[in-house]
Amino acid sequence: MKQLLIILSAALLLCLPHASVAQSDDDRGYLQAFLEDSLSGAGRQVRIVGFAGALSSRATIDELTIADDEGIWLTLRDVSLDWSRSALLTGRLEVTELSVAEVLLPRKPVTPDTIDVPAPEASGGFSIPDLPVSVNIEQVKAGRVEIGEPVFGQAAVITLNGSAKLADGEGTARIEVNRVDGTKGEVTLAATYANATDVLDLELTVSEDDGGILSTLMALPDNPSIDLTVAGSGPLDDFVADITLATDDTPRLDGSVTLKGTPSDTATGDDGTTTAPATDRSFALDLGGDIAPMFAPRYGAFFGDDITLKSSGTLFADGRLTLDTLDLNTRSLTLSGNLALASGGWPTVIALNGRIADAEGTPVLLPLPGEQTQIDNATLGVRFDAASGDGWDADIAVNGLNQPTLKLGTLTLKGDGTLTQGEGASLGGVMGQLTYAIDGIELTDTALAEAVGPRIDGGLNFDWTEDAPLKLSQIDLTGADYGLTGQAQLDGMTQDLNLSVAGNMTLTAANLSRFSEISGQDLQGATKFDAQFTFAPITGAFDVDLQGTGDNLAVGIPQADPLITGQSRLTLTAARDETGTRIDNFEIATDQLNATVSGTLSSDASDLQVAARVNETSLVQPGLNGPATLNGAIRQAGNDFTVDVRATGPGGVDLNVDGTLALVEGALGRINADINGSVQSLEPYSQLAGRDLSGSANITSQGWVDLRDYTFDLKTDLTGRNLSAGIPQADGLLRGDSTLSVVARRDGTVTNIETFRLASDHITASVTGTLGTDDGSLRVDARVPDASVVAPALTGAATLNGTLRQTGTDWAVDMRATGPGRADVRVAGVVPIVDGAPHRITGTVEGAVQSLSPYSALAGRQLAGAVNINAKGWYDPRDATFDITTDATAQNLGTGIPQVDQLLRGASSLDLAARKAADQPLIVDRLNLKTSQLQAAITASTSGADTTLNFDASLRDIGLFTDGINGPATAKGTAEQVGDNWRVNIDATGPEGTTATVRGEVATDASRANIDVAGAAPIGLANTFIAPNIAAGQARFDLSLNGPLALASVSGRISTDNARLVLPEQNITLAPIVTTVNLAGGRATLDTTATVSTGGTIRISGPVSLDAPNTADLAIAVNNVRITDPKLYDTTINGTGSVQGALTGGAAIKADLTLGTTEIRVPEGGAEAAPLLDGLTHVNEPAAVRATRARAGLIEEPDDTAAGGSNSRIAFPIDITLRAPARIFVRGRGLDAELGGTLRITGTTANVVPIGRFDLIRGRFDILTKRLDLIEGSAQLQGGFDPYIRFVAETSASDTTIRITVEGLASAPEITFTSTPDKPDDEILAQLLFGRGLDKISPLQAVQLAAAVRTLTGKGGGGLLNGIRERFGLDDLDIVTDENGETGARVGKYVTDNIYTDVTVGAKGDAEVNLNLTISPSLTARGSVASDGETGLGLFFEKDY
C-alpha cells in the first residue's frame, strides 16, 4: 500500500499554503509536475484526467494513473478532498473527507533494468529532511481497492474507512479494512489517549479465513485462517494488554504486556535540590504457546510444542535502564541474560548466554530463510560487569554447519577488551580485539572452493572513545595463500551519519591460479596491492593512492599474457569530490607495456590524457614486430566528446584521428572524424589478416556517420604502392602505384555514390549512382589493359561495362564483358529483390569466344576451338527452379581429354531446352547434340501431368576409345513418367556383339528403382584403361536393381566367354580365363580360373563387398605355374594365398609358395641394343605414336609422389613366404652354384621388406683352367624378380691369397678381385691363372688372360660343358683335377627333392659315387664309395650365424 499512501499524502499536501498560492489556471499541468517530483524513480509516468476545484474547498480528480515501461500499474478514480481553507488562518487543518471511489493496483511497479553509473562528482552531506506540519484527518475512505495477484500472491478486493482526531491533548484513531471479494478478511484498529487522565485504550483485531492475504504473505503451511487480538485499557502506570494468536481456530500464542509505574525514590534537579517525585516505569512481557505449526513441519524439532518468551525490566526516572530477565526457550534453543545501562546509556552489566543444540545430539535444522541450514550445535556468551572491573569478553562458536552448497567444520569468533564509562568530564570508550577462524570449509561450487580454500583466519583490534573516530588496527584476513592486512579509521559516526573511512590496506595473493576457475580465466602469477585511502560512503567522495606489483602474471589471453609476464607495476592516484573525479596518475608498467591515464572526469566537462606503448608487438600478434604507441586526449563538453589521438605501429604505421562523438540519451549518436595516416609496409600484418599482405599506403578520410540511423557523409582517398593481399588475380591489378577515391553519402534510406574510382597501371574501375530509391541506378566501368596480370596465361585487354537500374524492387542488369581470345559476352536481365533477397531472375546471355586456347591455364587443361552461345530463361534461387533454352555452336573444340576431343573435332552444335519445377525432377524438353562423331537427340512430350522423353544417340566409330574394336554404337529408348515413376526402355548396340537392354522403373525423386539390365560386351573395351596389357573375349551380364539406388540393391550374374589377357611385360598370356561373378546382398562372389601360357593354372575365388571400402576375402591357388625370363630365370611355383580386407586400402596379401627347380642365369652378354637418341623431343606427336611408345616403356611418366603429390598408389601389407630347400642354381660367367633356403617378403606393396635369403649349398667358380670352390653364396629379392646375388671364392697362388666376389643384380653383377697382400686387379688375375706376375707371362698366356677377362665380363658364352649339361638334363657337369693333377669328369643330379648324387670318373678309369641326403636345413648325411673299395659315411651339422 506504499504507493496508495504516496498518492493520498500528495493530495493532502495541496492543502498547504504554498500549494494553494502556487496554483495557476493550468491546474492539471502543475499537479502532474508536482506528483512526478513526489514519486521518485525512473520509468514512472503520471497522467491526470478531470482535475477541478484547486482554488475551492472541494478539489476533485476524475482519474489519476501511474505507468512504468510495462504500462499502468496504479489507477485512482473519483478522488476528492473536502476541507476548510479558512481554518488554516487559525492554525488548524480541518479535512472533512479525503476519499477515492476506486483504486486499481494490478501489479507492483517494475524497476528499470538500467544500471545507474555513479556520477564523477560526490554528493552533498546527509541530512534528515524537515517534516511538514502534522495532519489530522477526520475521514479517509476508499470505496473499492482492487489488488492484483502479483502484489500479494493472490487477487483481493478491499474497502478502507478511517478517521483521526488530535486536539486539546486528546487523540483518537479508527481504521477499518474489510475484504469484499467473498473471502473473509477484517482489520480493525481503535485507539484513544488523553493526556489529562494518562489512560490508553487500544484494541487491534485481525481476522481472515484460510487462504487469506496474511497467511499467503507469511507463507504459513496450508494457508490457515488467522485470528489476532491485542487489547488493553487503563492508565500507563497500570496498563495490561492481552495478546492472543490463533490459526484454524487453534490457539498458538497468548500472553500479556504489562506496564507499571511507581514513584521514584528521589529526583534531583540541576542544582542538587530534591524536586517533585518522578515515576519509575517497569515492564514485563510474558508470551508462550505452540507456534511450530505456523512454520514448515521440518522446523518442528527446533521449536517443540512449547515456546516461551519472558522479559522484565525497569526504566528509571534518572535515565537508567535494567533488563532484569530475558528468557527465550524452545526445544533446541535457550537464550538467557540480563542487562543494565547507566543514565548516560553506558552498560554496567551485560550477561548473555545462548545455546542451540538437540537434546539427543542430532543436527539442528534452523528456521532460516533461503537454503536449508543445519548445525551440530552453537554457543553464545557475552560478559561484562562494571562492578568487577572494566574488562569484557565474548565468544560465538558454531560446529558442523551444513547447507546444500556449504559446509563448515567450525566457526569461532572471540573478543575481549575493556569498556570505560564516561563520568563527568571524562569520556567513555571501548576497546578490544576480535579473532575469528573458519575451518573445514567445503563448497559444492568447485570454482569458489578453489578460490577460498579450506580455512580462513583473521582478526582486528578496535578502539573507540566518545566524540572520537573508531580506530581499527591489525586488520588481518588470511587464506591459504592470500591475505588482507592493514588499519582503518571511521569518523563522523555521530555527525548525522556523515561517515568517512581512512586507512591503509595491503592485499596479497601468492598464487592467482586458485582464482582461475571462478574468474573464467587461466590466471597465473602473484600480486600485491598497497592502498592508502579516505572514503565517505554517503557522499561517495574518496582520495586513494594505490600501488600494486605483479610477478609473472597471466590472465589466459594469448595477446595479453606476454605483455604482463615478468615484473609488473600498477599505480593509481585519484580523488573525488563535489567538482568531479581527478586522476593524477593511472599507470600500468611491465617490461613490454607502459600505459598511463591522467585528467579529470565530471558530468559535462571531462579531460583525459592517454598514452600507451607496447615495446614488442610480436608478443601480442605473431608476425608483427617492433613497438606500437597510442597517445592523445579525450575531452568532454556537455554531451560531446572530442578525441584527438595518434597511433603508430609495425610497418611504419602512423595514424591520426581527430573527431567528435555525440552522446544522445546515453547512446552514441553522430560521429565526426578526420583521419589521416600511412603505412610503409603491410607485410607485418599478413598473419593477422590470414593472407600475404605487402605494399605501402596513405589514407585521408573526412566525414560523419550517425549510429542511430546509419546515415553518413564520407570522403576517402587512398594511395598505394605495390599493394598485395595474397590473391594473385587481384595483386597483379594493384602492382605499382594505385589510387582509390570514394565520395558517398546516405540520407534516410538513400545512398548516393558520387565517386568510387580505382586506378592503377593495370586497371581502371569506377562505380557511380544512387541506391535506395524506386529509380536508383549504378554505372559500372572497368578495364584491364593486359589480362595476364590476372591470369598469366591470358593476353590482351579485358573490359566490363554496364548498368544496374532499380525500378521499385526490381533491378535491371545490362552488362557487357570482353576479353582474351576475342571473347565478347553480354548479359541482360531483371533481378527482383524482396525482403532483401533475390527472387526469380530472368535474363539472356549472348556471346562468343573466337579462341578458347588462352583459357587453358585457367581450366587446368589444354582448351581449343571457338564457341558461340545464346541462352535465355529464368532461375529462382529460393527453390533452385529454372527454365532455360540454350543454342550453342562450336568449331574444333578441345578439352585436353583425347577421348572427348575426338568426339568434338570439327563443327559441333548444341540445342538445349530444360526446366525444373519445385520438388520435381529435371525435365529436358529438347536436347540436340551434333558433332562429326556423335549425334544425340532428346525430345520431351507432355500429356497432362506425365512426360515422355525420347532419346536417340549414335557414335560413328567406337574404335576412337579402344584398340582392335571398330564400328558404330547406338543407344535409343524412352523414359515415360507414370505417376511417381519413370518407366525406362533402352536398347543399345555396338560392334563385335555388343548389346544391352535396360527395362524397368525409376522413382522421380531417384529414391528407388526396379530395372533389369542384360547384354554382352567385348572385354577389349577395357584395353584403353589397362594398357599396355591386352584383353580379349566376351563378357555377358544379366543384372537387376530392385530398391534404393545403391549397390546393395544389385543382383545378377556376370560371366566371360573365351576371355584372354596378355601381359607383355611379364611375357605371360592367361588363356582361357573362365570367370563367373554372382552379385547379391551388396557383394560380388568371384570365381576365376586362368591357364598360364608358360604352364600351370591360377584360381581366385571369394566374396568382395560392393560398397566402400570393398572388403574382400579372396583365396588364391597357384598350381605349377612356370615363371620365366629367358635371360634371367626359370622356375615353377606352387602354393596358396589370400587377400583379406579393404581393397581401397589396407587389405592384407598373404601367400605360402614353394619354388621348384630354379635356374638363375647370370647373362653372358651379347649384341647390345641400338642406343636410343637421348634428349629426343617429339613435336606434334600423333596420339597413336605416343600410345605405341608408352606401351614400349619409352615414356617416363612423372612421379607424383616425388613432388609431394597425392596420386601415390595405395599400399597393401604383404606377407609372402618362398620356400626352396635346394635346387636353386645360379650359373653364368664361370659361376656354377646351388642354393637353398626360405625367403619371407613383408612390408607393403610400396615398401617391400625381405627377410631371409637363399644360401649356398655347393658351388664353384671357373676361370680358364682354374677352378675355385665357393666359400660363400646367397641370393635374395629386393623388390623385383631380378634377384640380388653374392658369391665369394678363395684360393692361394704363390704367396698371395686371392678372393673373387660376384655381387649385384643377377642381370648385371659386378666381379671384384682382392688379395692379401693388396695388388692391382690384372696382377691378381695373372697370379691366379699362371702363378706368376703380369710381367712374366708369355704372349699366349696374355691371350688366355684376355679370354678370362672376356668370360668375367659376360662376353665368353656359356661354354661347351654348360651346353652338354642342359642337353642331358643334368644338374651338374664339370671337368675336375685331383691333388695329383689327374683329370676327371663329374656328373651330378637330384634324384628326389632331398637326395643329390654325383659320379666322378678319372682318366685312369677309377670312379667314385657320392650321395647326399638332406635330413633338415641344418643336418645332412653323406656317403661315398670308390672303385678301389674305399667307402665313407658321415653326418654333417651346418648353421649360418
Distance between the termini: 108 Å
Helix coverage percent = under 10%
Helical/strand content category: mainly beta
Number of strands: 81
Gyration radius, to the nearest Å?
56 Å
Secondary structure tally, helices: 18
Which spans have pLDDT < 50 for at least 5 consecutive residues?
1-28, 124-134, 1166-1172, 1198-1208
Cα shape: elongated
Largest sheet data? 73 strands, mixed
Percent of residues in beta strands?
over 45%
Q: If you average the pLDDT, what whole number results? A: 83
Please characterize this protein's 3D structure.
Keywords: Membrane, Signal, Transmembrane, Transmembrane helix. Residues 252-277 are annotated as: Disordered. It is found in: Membrane. Residues 1090-1441 form the Translocation and assembly module TamB C-terminal domain. By secondary structure, this protein is mainly beta. The two termini are 108 Å apart. It has a 73-stranded mixed sheet that branches. Among the domains are: 1-114 and 133-164, no CATH class; 168-236, no CATH class; 279-426 and 433-444, no CATH class; 1359-1441. Strand 35 and strand 36 form a beta hairpin. It contains 18 helices and 81 strands.
